[in-house]
Specification:
Order of helices and strands: HHEHEHEHEEHEHEHEEHEH
Distance between the termini: 63 Å
Helix content: 25-40%
Radius of gyration: 20 Å
Number of strands: 10
Largest sheet: 6 strands, parallel
Shape: elongated
Length: about 260
């Protein structure tokens, strides 16, 4: 399939699932993609990309990897892009196999339960990568992790942080085989700033959910503990990406603190 036609088609989730490919937009995102082990199908670029040193460097990196480069007009690039200003470059790449290895030591997983905002999901994945999370798992109802805005918002984290889109049955089976404890973020849970190191399981999955809908019933029924962020009474809730960052940091601190004897 012609690269421009393929990139346009990949704006749709069904096409991404069928083709096992996704689109990455913007100079920084494509630079990070080219530096990753991902298989890159090709680049669409405009003539303007060659007008600055960074753009020429990006093209040299593509050439060094043997990645095909197709020059298109500004209008053609915009027709395949998710943004109004795609910065003169768009890449098509292969979605990697979504498998999770059963851990042998300490492990931390982040589970997304029906998170629908792509900007939030991209930010959450970036935060999980920064906090040393083993992998992020998206349950049904969550936006496609290879949506162009998710890819862009992750700031390249998707290219090195393991992610998978699993059914609840798939994930719960994996969690059981790994001897994993399942916790969830909830407004009525235990205060996360009071966690003791010996209270943190060696293998833990933290579920975060849609701010409005809360946990899916089958997920809520499976969790062994809920945790919350103590807040001022005047504030009802936090953005899910902000809350996830605070929770993951608190778990990281508790997990690495000396345990009581």
């Amino acid at each position: 399939m012609k690269l421009l036609t393929l990139a346009r088609d990949l704006q749709r989730r069904k096409a991404r699932e069928r083709q096992h490919r996704f689109v990455a937009e913007g100079v920084r995102t494509v630079e990070t993609l080219l530096a990753s082990p991902f298989e890159v199908t090709g680049l669409l670029v405009t003539a303007a990309l060659q007008n600055d040193e960074r753009g020429r460097g990006l093209l040299a990196a593509a050439e060094a990897r043997g990645v095909p480069v197709v020059e298109v007009s500004d209008a053609e690039l915009e027709s395949a892009a998710d943004t109004d200003t795609p910065q003169g470059v768009l890449a098509v790449a292969t979605i990697p196999e979504q498998t999770l290895a059963v851990p042998t030591g300490q492990a931390r997983y982040l589970v997304l339960d029906a998170l629908q905002d792509p900007g939030n999901v991209g930010t959450v994945i970036r935060t999980a990568a920064a906090m040393g999370v083993t992998a992020t798992v998206a349950l049904p109802g969550t936006v496609d992790l290879w949506n162009a805005k998710v890819v862009r918002s992750s700031m390249g984290a998707l290219f090195h942080h393991p992610v998978a889109m699993f059914s609840w049955e798939q994930f719960s089976g994996f969690a059981a085989s790994a001897g994993m404890s399942l916790w969830a973020a909830d407004m009525h849970g235990d205060a996360v700033d009071g966690l003791r190191p010996d209270a943190c399981p060696e293998r833990l999955a933290l579920v975060v959910s849609n701010e409005g809908a809360g946990l899916s019933p089958h997920v809520a029924a499976a969790v062994s503990r809920t945790v919350t962020i103590p807040m001022a009474a005047e504030v009802e809730s936090l953005n899910v990406a902000v809350a996830t960052g605070i929770l993951l940091y608190a778990l990281r601190v508790a997990s690495h603190a000396p345990r009581s004897s």
